[in-house]
Amino acid sequence: MGYASGTTERERYASALAGLWESLASTLARLEAVAADELSLDDRSEQLPVLQNRLHWAGELVAGIEPPPGAERAHAELAAALEGARDATGEVRETLESEGAAAAWRLVHEWRGALFGVRLARHRLGLVGLGTQLAARPVDPPHSFNWSAAIATALVVAGTAAFTAGAIAVLWPVWALGLALVAASFLVYQP
Q: What is the DSSP string of 85-115?
């Protein structure tokens, strides 16, 4: 696949992972569906080798993708998570074949944790990408003290105190004053 001349290394990496994730998302969804129900574990056991092979394939693809600077650790976590999910799927499959569904069901929580680990690693890769983009943006200098926020806060505090005092003393004009002060805080504050 060719890339445009202005494509950065980070964009190529994101594109490669997006293509990988499109196929991997359906694999994870099918594995999670099998792991969700004890009865479906035995019924869908023939799917496990194919799904395990897809996890292996995804791991091989991740190993062939060079991460951009700053994403190496998150990339390695994704590769390790894929390997862990593949191994956990294989362990469930082998236990299912040798000992039956009841024995394999005891491994389901660990297996689901490994599948979740893949999604978590992908999420962390997204955070790494966002973090570098946010770091690249210039930071605005801090503004002067926001007086409207301070006045609005004071009005809310005074209004709450007046409303509470009016409620305790059973004086409706004081309640109304408290409500008016809180309402005025909305008019005063300008972000």
A: HHHHHHHHHHHHHHH-HHHHHTTHHHHHHHH
Q: Which two tokens stand for residue 32?
A: 């999670």
One-letter amino acid identity for 45? Answer: S
CA distance from start to end of the chain = 47
Q: CA-CA distance, 53 to 116, in Å (whole number)?
A: 18
Tens of each residue's pLDDT in the chain, 191 residues: 454 444 577 788 888 888 888 888 888 888 888 888 766 666 777 788 888 899 889 889 888 888 888 888 888 899 999 999 999 989 988 988 888 888 888 888 998 899 999 989 888 887 665 444 434 444 455 567 788 888 999 999 999 999 999 989 888 899 899 999 999 988 888 76
Pull the structure tokens for residue 41: 């574990």
Give pTM, 2 decimals.
Answer: 0.61
Closest among 62, 32, 59, 61 to 47, alpha carbons compared:
32
C-alpha closest to that of 104 among 45, 56, 46, 53: 45
